[in-house]
């Protein structure tokens, strides 16, 4: 799934085939530590946001990849 729709619930996203990461996995992919990850989630509108549902927190893989793609595209414009 390429487009993330924040209006959908976690079960709805799962039904659409979205793949989710644990926050630690997303942190590894983004190359940041826990504090930075959550600070960026609170302040950067483009940062992949964690989703809390019940007792678990997940990060949509599509959002992590989209952010990485955007950062790489910006780096290539230099």
Characterise the protein shown here:
This protein is of the alpha+beta class. Helix content is 51%, strand content 13%. The protein is built from four helices and three strands, in the order αβααββα. The chain has a three-stranded antiparallel sheet with strand order 1-3-2. The protein is globular and about 40 Å long.
Give the topology.
Layout: H1 10-15, E1 20-21, H2 23-30, H3 34-43, E2 51-53, E3 56-60, H4 61-76
Enumerate the strands of the largest sheet in spatial order, edge to edge or round the barrel: 1-3-2
In helices, the fraction of residues equals 40-55%
Q: Decide which structural class fits the backbone.
A: alpha+beta
Beta strands, count = 3
Helix count, per DSSP? 4
Principal-axes shape call: globular
* Succession of helices and strands: HEHHEEH
Query: Which radius of gyration do the C-alpha atoms yield?
Result: 13 Å
Mean pLDDT: 86
Largest beta sheet, briefly?
A: 3 strands, antiparallel
**Low-pLDDT segments, ≥5 res:** none
Ends distance? 30 Å
Q: How much beta, percentage-wise?
A: 5-15%
